[in-house]
Amino acid sequence: MTYDVILPAGGHVKDDLAAESGTDVKAMIRFGDETILARTIRVLGESGLAGRIVAIGGDAVQAEAKRLGAHGLPEASTGPENILNGLKWLRTQPNPPSKVMVVTTDLPFLTPDIIQRFVDLCPTDRAITVPLISRKEWEERFPGSTAMFVTLGDGQWTTGCAYLLDTNALESSMPQIEKVFAQRKSKIGMVKLLGPVFAYRFLRKTLTVPQIEAKIQSMLGCSGAAVRGAPPELAYDIDDLEDYAFAKKVAS
Length: 252
Fold this sequence. Notes:
Number of domains: 1
CATH topology: Spore Coat Polysaccharide Biosynthesis Protein SpsA, Chain A
Largest sheet: 9 strands, mixed
Number of strands: 11
CATH architecture: Alpha-Beta Complex
Shape: globular
Distance between the termini: 34 Å
Radius of gyration: 18 Å
Oligomer: single chain
CATH superfamily: Spore Coat Polysaccharide Biosynthesis Protein SpsA, Chain A
């Protein structure tokens, strides 16, 4: 089975990383002889799991996408809006998809095998699937690197940046997704979205992954799953100069 793919590629970086990498656009950062966007499109093609690919970003992103046989769309003001615009375009095409893959374009260690492993782990009866990576899995793959983990009653976790999504669920839950996106870098902000009971459990470190799954499913009005055992590479995104330097070291 193949999935149409949405690549939100509107992210920008701070001045120090832009100066070091030669671009202020995350997707256009180069590792070796290709940009992260080019790697992502290539890897998706080699996986055999990708149908149509649409990348949403600025002029450079659109030009790169077109050069690589993907479709490009102008960027909107937020990441979720970019995803929604990609979905709207796919729905204008013949045989519009009922499920799509969304992959961010700041993952320097993406490979065809990683895409395949994630898809194989995703339950087919869930509308939204999100990769979940433990601190142990992360540190075994990227020792000495940094990442934001949330400490729960059943472990320390971070989420990855590739998703399988039912298109109807994606569109209907977009207002809630916007709220989550706005708090994505804040542990406290994310917990506040879940309500005071969850905030209390979080502070007491008794909150668990299944409890969060159930709450988010209730908030979004659709089924979902946090996919345990997902490849740690799905969580290594380039946010700052430290991420970039470490990725260059690992890739060399």
